[in-house]
Amino acid sequence: MFDISAYCYLAFRELSFQSISVLTLATSIFGKFRGGPAKVAVVGSALMGTISGSAVANVAGTGCITIPLMKKTGYDSKSAAAIEAVASSGGLIMPPIMGAAAFVMSEFLGVPYLKIIVAAIIPALLYYIAVFVAVDCKAARMGLVGMPKEELPNFKEVIKSGFKFIIPLLILTYLIVVVMSSPQKAAFWGIISIIVIHAFELIKNKKYGELKGIFDIFEEGSKQGLSIIVACACAGIVVGVISLTGVGFMLSGALVEIGGQNLFLLLFITMCTSIVLGMGLPVTACYIILAVLAAPALVNLGVNPIAAHLFVMYFGVLSGITPPVALAAYVGAGIAEAKPMAVSIEACKIGIVAFILHSIKINSGIQ
Hints:
Blueprint: H1 4-20, H2 22-30, H3 36-52, H4 55-72, H5 77-90, H6 100-109, H7 113-142, H8 155-162, H9 167-177, H10 183-204, H11 213-245, H12 247-259, H13 263-278, H14 283-293, H15 295-300, H16 305-318, H17 327-336, H18 340-350, H19 352-364
Helix pairs in contact: 1-10, 1-11, 2-3, 3-4, 3-5, 3-7, 4-5, 4-17, 5-7, 5-17, 5-18, 6-14, 6-16, 7-19, 9-10, 11-14, 12-13, 13-14, 13-16, 14-16, 16-19, 17-18
């Protein structure tokens, strides 16, 4: 299904993004506006989320920087942690790299990955625009200002020093969108481009001893892939049992029967199912199970298959901020030293548009 090379690509992307520092780039652009650190968190976490594949890892990685900055400029601990959790969770639905689940979806539906990107791009952009506006309104109500000018990095210097690290992402996007290559092939050439760029940087700075560290990234990529592979293998067993016993067909029929011909009721039931399963499973494993259990019920009511599968994946992702088990919110709460449940509730308020947006997408996806 999803080749290990793609995980190696994600690991290499994390290496390169640590060099360019997406937070530095976001700070140079948005730090000067009111509530600047919160907007930096939204933009930076969106970019980091596309490569990390985990909302929890994203919160832990960027939150240790953005949350203290938000608190420093006037946000309370609860709001700072909630903003970071919402922004980090949305990164998993942001094209062109949407984590492993989107690649699995492409294989599952038998459609080009480009179609998944096209279907996901508008909801993802609307999600972040809505979160950005919510953060700005909150900053306006609280009377917050931007970061001091002397603390802002120089935009031109950031671009000059980091533009080369955007090249692999451009190559990946070109291969998938224009050439329509397979995700594995695109990931392979992405890896090659990152190796060349990173090696050039090390040689240029005469850090010859660090060249061997490049090969350690393959190990890191394999480790990242291993956890998902194991989860997907277990999910595959569940899916196999469901298929062989006919439980999946019966459950889909039961969902349709409960919802009747009321699409909104069925969407609500499917949403709850996705969130509950997403509380204890990685996004990819959660999606695989939901693709068999819940998505067919939506398709039976005339929903476009891609829209139906994106719907269940989205709410699997949003389980990271939904009480009672909101792992992304809980990690943010730990960094901000806030109450986890309060952070989770606040995150739902900030990200409320996400719970509505995907239902609108479903309505536009009815065949």
